[in-house]
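Minutes, methods subgroup
Present: GH (chair), OT, SY

1. OT presented the first of two proteins processed in the latest run. Sequence and structure tokens recorded below as shown on screen.
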Amino acid sequence: MARGANFLRGFLSLGRNLNKVEGEDREEREEGVISAPISELSLDKTDDELIDLKKEWEKRWNDSKVKKGIEARQKENERYWLGDHYASSQKRTNRREAVDNLIFEALETFLPVITRQVAEPLVGSSSEPEAQAFARKVSDRIKDIADVTRLRLKVKKAVRNWAIYFLGVLKFGWSMDKNEIAFEVVRPQRIILDPDAVTDECEYEGEYLGHYRDDSASDLAARFPSKETFIKNEVGKENLGTKIRYIEWWTADYVFWTLKDAVLGKSRNPHWNYDQTNKREIFDEMTGLSQTVEDTVQGSNHFSQRKVPFAFLSVFNLGKGPYDDTNLIEQVLPLQDIVNKRVRQIDKNADNTNGGAVVSGDFFSPEQAREVGEALRKGQTVRVPTGDVNRAYKRDVGPALPQFIYQHLVDSRNEVRGIFGTTGLSPQGIKSEETVRGKIIVRSQDSDRAAIIVDYIEQFYDYVFNWIVQLMMVYYDTPRQVSRLQGVDVISSGDFIWPLVVSVKEGSLIPKDRLTKRNEAVELWSSGAMDPLTLAERLEEPNPQEFVRRLILWKTNPLALIGGQQQAALQPLEAQPEQPSV
């Protein structure tokens, strides 16, 4: 079995040359060499050759149009999501104008809906009873791992990164500390990508991938003892607690680690069972001679080929590069600016309606005019000793804004919510609907729109579950409990039965309105197309079995149900000890 000597987290992906190039469509159709010459990585390369390759990869990424174009867009999306809609001058003076952060509201309403459902793994095998029983074990083990590692929250974080940074990244591997499969959400900014790579459909179709990692100098020296002196010289022998940032480089076949111009270590892809060669002696009785024979035992793997240990969530991707070509936040930025502008217009108009005072110089001096304005603002009385009061001063009230200003604000807000599919999830979005049926229809339309993105999240889970099985086959050398709730059943890498197909139940992540589900359950129950236990589960009864028991008792012997309740109510009184008489 291939076992990493250190704490590795990873997620394998394909590294195929797609013959793509950055630029316009005409460049995509050019023939011949389309990238700088890059030598093929092999494990027998020297450290100097690996450093040259590392520099080549870094330069190619840093000089690419992909990196230069995406960084500014990521920062702008993050700034708007945080509500930082202000100019630098406003920040310095701390006089910020009014804003209405619809982007934060829409995204943080949208995220819980599309990630609320729990992905259900489906594991299939042959029709033989033994294979079916093992498939159930694998399914239960996947569920237990997903629960312990809080996989749903990690996927939610990856979806948020996708929504803001145009890409969601999840890394898989093995935790030596926990002796179990591990997951890690990686910020896209900490990834070095092949500019010609594509990340749609979860897999990474590129030649190489780099991951910026941080460790203390002491941990790094323990992981790479041959470089202990080099690491100590970097931080000083007395500063081993200092954090060091280094790069972990992946291809489908190999992984190596670099710190500046030094290679800390290199290894074959640890998440793979490689073929084993066994030697044995054969004795020929006729000749009396012995001969050494080599037998090759093929490694058992879930995947058909090695992959880099990363999963990518990409939705709005045209296949031109590793990042999405656009995303929801970028699409609503102009609408957010309009909302802010309208809010500020209404805010200024509201200030004007507070009114001011126009004072005649024939009646008041400048100092008296200021006193008049202050008195009027406080609602006090202003005395004009002589003359016509109407000629001395008058109140000035700004005109009301036209109605279309407010209506345009409402329309812009609804457009933002419509693009995110959260119109029916906010009170403002459905307050115009007067009937319950109308509100349900609006929510249903939102669910249909969210289903577009949910399809990609389902495939993301699908890829994750398949990776869990691959890591189980590599690292489960000793039997493991299938589930914390089922301590009897165990599973190990040697138990795997083929064929084994791992997927996600289609539609299991599509947002479902609770009221709609309850109404459907009642209709199916009324038509006799649903059993009482499923009805109780759809109605979200806290104890479905007790619900069914009482339903059956009510149907067969209602007096016994009523009598049992009365007896249960009287039981505590009958059980009380008799009080002594005085």
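2. SY then presented the second protein from the same run.
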Amino acid sequence: MLDEQTNCVAEIVTRYDNDPLRLMDIARAVHAQLGHISESTIGQIAKALGIERIKVRDMVSFYAFFSRQPQGKTVIRLCHAVVERMKGADAVAEAFEKALDIAFGETTADGLITLEYTACIGLSGQAPGALINNIPFTNLTPKDVPQIVEAIRKGADLTTLPQAEVDLGLRQPGPVIFAPMERGAAIRKALNMTPEEVINEMNKARLRGRGGAGFPTAMKWDFCRKAEGEKHYVVCNADEGEPGTFKDRVVLTEQADLIFEGMTVAGYAIGAEEGLVYLRAEYEFLYKHLEQVLAKRRHLGLLGENACGREGFNFDIRIQMGAGAYICGEESALIESLEGKRGAPRDRPPFPVQCGYKNQPTSVNNVETLCCAARIMVEGGEWFSKIGTVDSTGTKLLSISGDCEHPGVYEVEYGITIQKLFDMVGANGTQAIQIGGPSGICLAPKDFGRKISFEDLPTGGSIIIFGEERDLLECMRQFMDFFVEESCGWCTPCRVGTTLMEQYFKKILDGKGSQEDLAELEKLGVTVKTMSRCGLGQTAANPILTTLRNFPDLYDARIKSDTFVPPFDLKLAQQAGCVAANRQAAVEEN
């Protein structure tokens, strides 16, 4: 067995040129072949790469899709994000436990099936969803479970099951992302300009990054182009891990050419020869499709040496798979992961445009931004600037899920109101709307006239709708569970602060909170928000802080006392010990 592992590791490491920067690919390949990465395997990888064992262990232990213990031949990962639980994921979970006679986190006695929970997998518009050996399953019900388990035990082709079908979910295409475009048109137009003129076109369009922060794309490209370095890099952030977000999945499926077109334009503008797509592990089922699109583009001369017929313009693209970590959506954590490390955010400055991938100038843009850049090259910056609002030009892709009749992806012009969104997706009797996923803000009906735009409600694209029947605060508690789980643990305000917030919040939801607890909860939230190192911690308190502001009555209804209430029954906690010792409890009833 040890010889088999050694040979496996040696072959895989050689396949990746003994390059420590490809540790992510090496670990993924080893895990796929051996079913897990043991401590001995970690040592073998470290020795083969000539690096310290702790570096391999540190990386492997960070990602959710790497297991240190043997798993079943089939791994069922059921999504238990908020929308999925709203749509019945808990009942599906019970059905899996009953059918397999194991709990989540366990493997069947025959070693065939492992059952796990996972965070959002980009299928909230057709929830509940699961990944079974990385094959997506959608719209699951408890009645589906016996058929799925039987197929697994029989070794059937899981892709033939009716539940293994992903609806594209594109409900409303628009003129920017989903309009048709000739392959190579954007690159040819860019190559007829100087790189500075290409950047200026982005400036005319007033294109801002679609990840939510809205940094001007022209400025980012200009900074990167002017930064000194041996090489420059373009990185496409395709790690949409925000619960309730699935727009990039649709774009990657339908408009991969447009993404790669935008990356190539960016490469020309900043002087890069290499582009990298960081694709989240949950979208592994799209990898083959994306590689086929890239191969087609190389065949047509749109990638590679002298791309698009331009002498000296050598630009190609590589896809880097992730391994399951929400924090890797943050650009510096993403770069760390690209380099085969744990996805911990970097201190800034320096910024990625100065010192990014391989410590070289790097422009990190998300999927949607790169699509916009390609469209701008064809239609012109002035054309783009006339869509949307003055400060928010163009269109925005929204992933809409939750309590509505028509969940899915909508391409809308910036400036659309929340109420118009409701009319569009068939949402009636809405209690609240979560703009930007858990890291965004929760709005009450008084704010439904507000607009999706950088000047009012900026968002990366996740929109979750809560009907009147939902326990809104329980949904917020689940958001907090998510942040506690996904914190990288580097800084104390986030690592400790989110845990303390969760404890106070649970106490209040259990009816044991006081006004003092509410005040302490808000104080903690502000501390976490203002003192955390990266964007995760800086937004982790938003579910609580925004509902405290917009739904104070829901909190007041949970408060049973104005004075301190213990979070647990001390006498009850002592009871078992007192019985065993034949002693009376030290705490008496008042």
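Chair's summary of item 2: The two ends are 65 Å apart (CA to CA).
Next meeting: continue with the remaining queue.
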